[in-house]
């Protein structure tokens, strides 16, 4: 007997001496590796036969032991190490990282077919492990033998403390082992032949792989924990029949992915924000989710702005315009404002009897309207009513939020919306996230990083910079509870052949019209100067309270902020309202002479009422009070709402509703207030005098619009398309345009016009053929304007007429598909550029029948610099302290006050149609989410079964495509072996590393053939997007790229170039980690320096690689 220690004497070297021509080799071991074959290739080629017996069940049929295992196996089957070991154990990684396993596998498979048979232990009984070789020259045996791998042969380092093997050559010993082996080998009840399975598995290494297969191997490894967590409870239940519903059948592929992902997130985290970009169909996606929950007998409430109620009500009623009538939707619809009403009805629902706590799912459209959680004394805000009465009360409520702009100026916007999902208790969500920090800390750190980023010079304030500054807990949080895709994302990463493409955007037209060509009327600049003189003190009575009476009103109306954050003063609220009303005047002046004139008339009435009260008190000493209007405007969104149409008094000055502040005029400094009111009234009446000179015939912008309409009709940009959509921010302007355009267009061109404002009944020149005396409602109006997208042939089959010119407010800027139209004119420029994109999104939609579309914008007749200065001057008055529970001071974002940034934004609006993502302040959620990839993997595994048996180190070859970012090079998928491979890695060393790589322990890196890194391992979303773009849908190997690759590498035998690229990739990762470690020493929070090191190639296991082959 000889003892082999595998240090001084190696088992492999001894076998080389013992294996002779003509021998039979018998091996009973737990694993077989092609690298062991490679090490003994010459000797194994000489023997007559190999009989290999797997001592544990390997490549035998899986046997589920209980129901739970079978249920989970539908989505995930744990990877069998014995199976994976065929292509190299975890300690043969260095050999596999040489990338030659394809060539080795091919030669090994050929040898097996000629000389080897494999059987596996088919029972659960353990077997001894040994090796014997016998022939004419005698026999030899080795035991114990763990496996037949390069490690067991002594050629690679393992993790065992010792690896001693005994060699026997005495006949009595060797014959005993041979007889034992033969007895088991020939017993069909104890073993099962697996030779074919072995050959198939090894063949998978050397056969050409489809790119799609490599993509899913990549995803399977990275997201296997997601599959482990998945069970029936958090996935859509197919038995509900939701996939047969009409709405589900209408969804595009990317919408179905979103709907499946949202249901998963709602079941897992209780809430989700859908933040897909404008024009991607969030409404239909939400309807599909609603249908799913209705089929599970859940009660659903839709909360939406009043302007969007008709759109939602159209689908839950038995109407001709409801294309989903057969789906029998029965959700309820209420307005955001209904949360604060306790009397009256809303669409037939008595608000005093609403059982707010009985909804299983609440869908909040435009959820960004709930981004503020400010406190008011003795007054419950919409947000607080939603949280306290709907979310926290009664049944457990899931919350789906829809918003194209969930983040405005601060991450608290997002935090407040997410708080609705976890009932204000962040621990509910934190316990389900795989993050190091709690939710509140994650948002605090993110806001700090964002604030620092906003102070950078404009050229350094890039998306890459903010993504680098945010830690990965923030990414993990957003990825868990949001789904966001952009137009670019859908075009790049989804097959849109069946859907159609987006239309070409023509360069926007910009028009600068004066108010009038009359010389006796002042122009924009003079009006702006006059408006800047207004104090609008009618909206700030608290500022005139006598010093001796101030404490009385502070006690009544100032609000202590929860958590000791400070005090929100009524005087601050009034200053905010003053600024809001000044902004409103400027907006209405930009919109139209008519809108501006009506607002001036309302202001004139307010001032006269207030002055009348003061005069009576000063003359008679009578007791009078004045109502502060701040509470009326509490929920008015500065960007979205017209204050004169959505709140405030109607000229009387003393209407009182819940929460209003009533001030006794005896407590005020009346002479001062009277002086300021009279000064404002003089300015207002002077401006009114000027505006009353301008008739429609004198209105330069109106006359220019008429000429543009005539030109559009004479020169259509798409043959035969005469449809035109005109947007304005104000109903008063819409009324003015309709009154001055509709009759003329019908008389001169025979075209019918329509008007929708959301505040009054729709109006049109068209009379229905079926009933000429019947009016046309909102949905019918839109169907007649966009008959193809609204399926007019199905819902109004007997109506031949159409509307070609539609004038509308922002009541139709969201949630509507009007893509039959090819031209949008913004009669006024909304101060929030997002609105411009939302308006254009009605016609800029995937699957449009138009080849190209046109946007036209009307600007005030002043230079862009003057326009910027005006806005800056007004906004500077709006920078009031917003004291929140965190004690942060919120002013308008640094970008909003950065003249250079704003100027560039508006300049681009004049030159091009820009994406929503380009306007977001800093980080786009679209840059972060990995949900698409999880859904890709889930759908693939459900359709094709488990991927766990596939060996590591596989590759595919795809053609380069620089337009899609696919430059010649390699995308490597690696697993770090040293720093943990699971959730346990979140402790200590692994936690620090994970903050630098959100996929840890997996790493992706894209390196060019020239050795330069194209995408670093920290750019996770980009790397996965590129892999998806290159691979998805490519379900067969691409011969045109495989052939030149195989020639260059001698069919995988010469992989030195790619091994060097792999080594360079890992070196770049080490350099990046070191840079981040140094940075972490000088930043707040835990440092990653000295906590864990990546030494080099041996620390990594190659999972797969994707070769991007240059075009020949």
Which labels suit this protein?
1112 residues; alpha/beta; eight-stranded mixed sheet; elongated
List the helices and strands and how they pair.
Elements: E1 2-4, H1 11-18, E2 24-29, H2 34-39, H3 41-46, E3 49-54, H4 67-73, H5 81-84, H6 93-96, H7 101-115, E4 116-121, E5 130-135, E6 138-143, E7 165-168, H8 171-185, E8 191-193, H9 195-206, H10 211-222, H11 224-229, H12 246-250, H13 253-269, E9 271-274, H14 282-295, E10 300-304, H15 309-313, E11 332-335, E12 345-346, E13 349-350, E14 361-365, H16 382-391, E15 398-402, H17 412-421, H18 426-430, H19 439-454, H20 463-469, H21 472-481, E16 482-483, H22 487-493, E17 504-505, E18 509-513, H23 524-532, H24 550-557, E19 559-561, E20 566-568, H25 570-591, H26 593-620, E21 625-628, H27 643-646, E22 661-664, H28 670-691, H29 700-714, E23 724-727, H30 731-749, E24 753-756, E25 763-764, H31 778-785, H32 792-795, E26 805-808, E27 823-826, H33 833-840, E28 852-860, H34 864-876, H35 899-911, H36 916-919, H37 931-944, E29 954-959, E30 969-976, H38 988-994, E31 1002-1008, E32 1013-1015, H39 1020-1031, H40 1039-1049, H41 1056-1081, E33 1100-1109
Parallel strand pairs: 2-3, 3-4, 9-15, 9-16, 10-11, 10-14, 14-15, 17-28, 18-28, 23-26, 23-27, 24-26, 27-28, 29-33
Antiparallel strand pairs: 1-7, 2-5, 4-8, 5-6, 6-7, 12-13, 19-20, 21-22, 24-25, 30-31, 30-33, 31-32
Helix pairs in contact: 7-9, 10-39, 13-14, 13-37, 25-26, 26-28, 26-30, 34-35
């Amino acid at each position: 007997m000889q003892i082999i220690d595998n240090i001084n004497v190696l088992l492999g070297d001894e076998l080389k001496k013992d294996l002779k021509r003509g021998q039979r080799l018998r091996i009973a071991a737990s694993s077989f590796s092609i690298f062991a074959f490679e090490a003994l290739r010459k000797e194994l080629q000489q023997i007559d036969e190999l009989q290999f017996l797997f001592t544990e069940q390997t490549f035998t049929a899986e046997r589920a032991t209980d129901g739970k295992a079978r249920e989970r196996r539908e989505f995930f089957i744990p990877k069998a190490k014995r199976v994976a070991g065929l292509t190299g154990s975890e300690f043969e990684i260095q050999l596999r990282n040489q990338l030659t396993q394809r060539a080795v596998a091919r030669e090994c498979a050929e040898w097996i077919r000629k000389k080897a048979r494999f059987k596996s232990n088919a029972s659960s009984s353990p077997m001894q492990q040994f090796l014997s070789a016998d022939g004419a020259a005698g026999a030899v045996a080795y035991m114990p033998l763990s496996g037949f791998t390069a490690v067991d042969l002594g050629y690679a380092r393992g993790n065992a403390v010792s690896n001693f093997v005994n060699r026997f050559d005495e006949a009595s010993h060797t014959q005993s082992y041979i007889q034992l082996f033969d007895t088991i080998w020939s017993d069909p009840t104890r073993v099962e032949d697996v030779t074919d399975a072995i050959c198939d598995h090894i063949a998978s290494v050397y056969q050409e792989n489809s790119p799609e297969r490599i993509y899913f191997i990549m995803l399977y490894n990275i997201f296997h924990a997601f599959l482990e967590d998945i069970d029936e409870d958090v996935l859509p239940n197919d038995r509900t029949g939701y996939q047969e519903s009409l709405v589900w059948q209408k969804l595009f592929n990317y919408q179905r992915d979103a709907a499946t992902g949202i249901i998963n997130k709602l079941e897992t985290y209780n809430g989700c924000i859908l933040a897909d970009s404008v024009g991607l169909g969030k409404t239909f996606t939400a309807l599909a989710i609603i249908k799913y929950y209705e089929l599970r007998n859940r009660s659903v409430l839709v909360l939406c702005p009043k302007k969007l109620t008709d759109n939602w009500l159209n689908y839950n009623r038995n109407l001709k315009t409801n294309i989903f009538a057969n789906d029998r939707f029965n959700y309820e619809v209420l307005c955001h404002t209904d949360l604060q009403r306790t009397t009256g009805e809303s669409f037939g629902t008595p608000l005093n009897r609403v059982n707010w706590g009985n909804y299983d799912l609440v869908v909040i459209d435009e959820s960004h309207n709930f981004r503020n959680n400010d406190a008011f004394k003795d007054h419950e805000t919409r947000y607080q009513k939603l949280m306290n009465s709907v979310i926290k009360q009664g049944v457990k409520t899931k919350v789906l939020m829809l918003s194209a702009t969930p983040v405005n100026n601060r991450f608290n916007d997002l935090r407040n919306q997410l708080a609705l999902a976890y009932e204000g208790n962040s621990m509910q969500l934190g316990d389900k996230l795989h993050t190091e920090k709690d939710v509140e800390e994650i948002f605090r750190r993110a806001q700090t990083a964002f604030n620092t980023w906003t102070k950078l010079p404009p050229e350094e304030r890039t998306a890459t910079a903010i993504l680098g500054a945010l830690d990965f807990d923030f990414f993990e949080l957003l990825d868990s509870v949001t789904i966001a895709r952009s137009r670019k994302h859908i075009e790049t990463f989804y097959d849109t052949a069946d859907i159609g493409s987006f239309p070409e955007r023509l360069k926007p037209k910009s028009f600068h019209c004066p108010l009038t060509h009359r010389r006796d009327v002042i122009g924009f600049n003079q009006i702006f100067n006059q408006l800047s003189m207004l104090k609008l003190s009618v909206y700030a009575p608290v500022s005139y309270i006598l010093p001796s009476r101030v404490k009385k009103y502070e006690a009544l109306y100032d609000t202590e902020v929860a958590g000791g954050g400070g005090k929100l003063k009524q005087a601050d609220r009034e200053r905010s309202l003053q600024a809001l009303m000044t902004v409103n005047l400027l907006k209405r002046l930009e919109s139209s002479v008519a809108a501006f004139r009506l607002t001036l008339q309302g202001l004139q009435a307010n001032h006269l009422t207030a002055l009348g009260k003061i005069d009576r008190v000063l003359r008679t000493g009578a007791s009078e009070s004045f109502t502060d209007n701040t509470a009326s405007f509490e929920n008015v969104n500065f960007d979205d709402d017209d204050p004169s149409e959505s709140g405030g008094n109607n000229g009387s000055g003393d209407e009182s509703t819940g929460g209003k502040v009533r001030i006794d005029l005896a407590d005020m400094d009346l002479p001062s207030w009277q002086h300021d009111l009279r000064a404002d009234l003089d300015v207002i009446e002077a401006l009114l005098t000027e505006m009353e000179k301008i008739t429609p015939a004198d209105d330069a912008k109106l006359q220019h619009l008429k000429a543009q309409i005539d030109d559009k009709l004479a020169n259509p940009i798409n043959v035969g398309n005469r449809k035109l959509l005109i947007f304005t921010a104000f109903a008063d302007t819409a009324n003015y345009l309709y009154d001055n355009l509709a009759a003329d267009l019908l008389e001169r061109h025979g075209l019918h016009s329509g008007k929708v404002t959301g505040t009054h009944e729709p109006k049109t020149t068209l009379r229905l053929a079926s009933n000429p005396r019947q009016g046309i409602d909102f949905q019918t109006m839109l169907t007649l304007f966009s008959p193809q997208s609204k399926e007019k042939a199905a819902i109004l089959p007997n109506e031949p007429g159409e509307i070609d010119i539609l004038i509308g407010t922002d009541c139709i800027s969201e949630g509507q598909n009007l893509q039959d139209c090819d031209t949008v004119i913004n009669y006024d420029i909304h101060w929030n550029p997002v609105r411009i994109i939302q308006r254009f999104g009605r016609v800029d939609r995937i699957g449009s029948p138009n080849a190209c579309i046109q946007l036209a914008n009307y600007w005030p007749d002043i230079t862009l610099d003057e326009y910027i200065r005006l806005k800056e001057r007004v906004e500077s008055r709006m920078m009031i302290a917003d004291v929140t529970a965190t004690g942060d001071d919120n002013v308008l974002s640094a970008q909003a006050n950065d003249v250079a940034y704003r100027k560039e934004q508006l300049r681009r609006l004049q030159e091009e149609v820009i994406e929503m993502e380009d306007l977001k302040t800093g980080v786009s959620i679209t840059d972060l989410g990995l949900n698409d990839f999880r859904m890709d993997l889930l759908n693939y595994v459900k359709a094709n079964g488990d991927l766990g048996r596939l060996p590591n180190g596989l590759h595919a070859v795809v053609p380069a495509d620089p337009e899609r970012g696919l430059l010649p090079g390699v995308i490597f998928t690696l697993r770090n072996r040293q720093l943990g491979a699971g959730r346990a890695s979140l402790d200590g060393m692994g936690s620090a590393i994970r903050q630098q790589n959100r996929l840890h322990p997996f790493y992706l890196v894209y390196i060019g053939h020239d050795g330069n890194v194209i995408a670093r391992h920290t750019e996770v979303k980009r790397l996965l997007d590129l892999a998806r773009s290159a691979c998805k849908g490519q379900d067969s190997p691409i011969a045109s790229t495989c052939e030149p690759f195989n020639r260059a590498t001698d069919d995988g035998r010469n992989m030195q170039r790619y091994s060097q690229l792999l080594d360079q990739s890992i070196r770049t990762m080490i350099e990046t980690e070191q840079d981040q470690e140094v940075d972490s020493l000088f930043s707040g929070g835990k440092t990653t320096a000295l906590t864990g090191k990546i030494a080099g190639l041996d620390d990594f296991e190659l999972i797969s690689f994707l070769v991007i082959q240059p075009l020949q």
